[in-house]
Amino acid sequence: xxxxxxxxxxxxxxxxxxxxxxxxxxxxxxxxxxxxxxxxxxxxxxxxxxxxxxxxxxxxxxxxxxxxxxxxxxxxxxxxxxxxxxxxxxxxxxxxxxxxxxxxxxxxxxxxxxxxxxxxxxxxxxxxxxxxxxxxxxxxxxxxxxxxxxxxxxxxxxxxxxxxxxxxxxxxxxxxxxxxxxxxxxxxxxxxxxxxxxxxxxxxxxxxxxxxxxxxxxxxxxxxxxxxxxxxxxxxxxxxxxxxxxxxxxxxxxxxxxxxxxxxxxxxxxxxxxxxxxxxxxxxxxxxx
Amino acid sequence: xxxxxxxxxxxxxxxxxxxxxxxxxxxxxxxxxxxxxxxxxxxxxxxxxxxxxxxxxxxxxxxxxxxxxxxxxxxxxxxxxxxxxxxxxxxxxxxxxxxxxxxxxxxxxxxxxxxxxxxxxxxxxxxxxxxxxxxxxxxxxxxxxxxxxxxxxxxxxxxxxxxxxxxxxxxxxxxxxxxxxxxxxxxxxxxxxxxxxxxxxxxxxxxxxxxxxxxxxxxxxxxxxxxxxxxxxxxxxxxxxxxxxxxxxxxxxxxxxxxxxxxxxxxxxxxxxxxxxxxxxxxxxxxxx
Lengths: 289, 289
Prior knowledge:
2 copies of one chain form a homodimer.
Chain A: E1 3-7, H1 20-32, E2 37-39, H2 52-64, H3 81-94, E3 99-101, H4 112-126, E4 133-137, H5 139-142, H6 148-157, E5 162-167, H7 172-181, E6 186-189, H8 195-200, E7 205-208, H9 211-226, H10 232-245, H11 250-262, H12 279-288
Parallel strand pairs in A: 1-2, 1-7, 3-4, 4-5, 5-6, 6-7
């Protein structure tokens, strides 16, 4: 699992239930637009605003609707160990090649020992050699995260299972360090701004909210890098798009852009506590794009 | 619902399941020690480390085991609206007179509009006139919280339903302001340090982790205040105990104290990511108590 992955937005009906049809359609469109894989039910996917049942049912529906399970990297983050276990087992049962795991994010100021114990219990309770955990480092939402020391401890204890990381700290120096210190880890930058740098440092790609609209641009950077061609101009264009998008809150902006792109009103809806962009901001976004 | 409430610790077996027998026993002991009510499944109760099913089953078991539902203030906090709805409905069905509701705590930097919409949806989806929401303000864990403006908006929109608040910001001036601005609200301080002040400001009591061990002392302050007697010396003694306890992480310290007090090894266990106190710290705690 590497390359360009979208952190997929989740379409929701007016009653805020996941719109199964629009979800499968959006996932197929992202693959057609160049995504190697789909990071469903992460932060962008409003995963933690959905119940565990809703997440399991929606992933099952995606696969039943014909999405290939081997491109899916479902988020299985949860504060409660039994929820993380159940989500991981459901993803494995469907054939997902990996899962993206948040640290338990309710308590703040917890120790690396406590976080290690959480993941050790998770791995042992899932009890399946096929489990591939991608550590989801996103301190802007979770506050706590994965220190390099914790990543090292987890890799030493579970070398076959700890497969990768998505690093959404927004800190290029940290991504470089993780790529350097842990070459066995599949490293995804959390923003396509760092895509080319991450690849040069030995990392593997990006998983990003804005890839919902930048997929073709991001794919061009990746393909040029892999082909040994000059990827700088493509990265500069991608970075410019991303920097424009960074002026807006990511999830509402992606939904507004997808509404305009598809004409599907289902993209109007976000689960609270997230708000939709107001009309002025939507116009600003669309004229900029 | 007012007075001295313990934020009840949850006993867990070696497999980390809730120990039903020890839980009921501990709840009864807290009532015997002077608690007016029991804030089960809050932060101290490791609620967010339990699945929704586990929380619902444990509350049902408590009532089945003879705990009077009318002393229970169950935490129903969840990031996902369907989870908050289900937990609230389960608490109502059992006869709990109120529920303690966290803001949805995954996303940071969300607007008051978004939080308002979350609680409006929650109240409308629960759809039960008996619902009494206590707003659980605890920014040390959730980062976001209830601004006075948001509390005012919710009270205006749902005057019968927004019943109270537990304020765990650790800020006496804020509690005073909430008591003053919203006299119709039942206000609990999140620490017994502010118990007497809160009562003087027109508030109603405290809900606190450390009441798991300070219940008789806190009750003395409350009873003296209500009787019009001098409650200062009792508050000074209570504050001294609390300040000693504040040197330790609250949940591990409560479990260590309860293990020593009851001799029940079930209190050794915490769900990750929380760690038990090490032996040196346990000795320091117990000799101080």
